[in-house]
Structure formats: C-alpha cells, structure tokens
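#lab-general

N.A. 3:47 PM
ok so I finally got the sequence cleaned up, no stray characters, all 61 residues accounted for. can someone with queue access submit it? mine expired

B.Y. 3:52 PM
send it over

N.A. 3:53 PM
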Amino acid sequence: MGEIVKFRKPSPKEKAEGKTLCRSGFHKWKIISERKFDVKQGKLMTLRRCERCGKEQTILR
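B.Y. 4:20 PM
back already:
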C-alpha cells in the first residue's frame, strides 16, 4: 500500500501552529506589583506578567 496524501488545504489554525505571539516576542504585559524598592541597587522595581503565557519580567527604574 502507498502512503496517504492529504489533499485538503490546511486551516489558518494549522498553519499558525507554533507561531504564537509570545513565542515571537510580542507579550501582553500586565503590571502585577508596582513601586517596590530594591535595596541593593537603590531603584524602584516593577513586576510584569504576560497574560497569555505567564512569563514574568522585572523592570528597574
């Protein structure tokens, strides 16, 4: 028997599989805690979390 070949056109969801916004670096950041003070560096800290993937980021100002 030969191999079965798909003749239908792939849906946009199937085409975009693995190419999400977060994987491409376009996160949807939301501020979790603002204005904490980092004693060691003497700067204000802001903690942000991505709403889609849950990755956290700390920003010093």
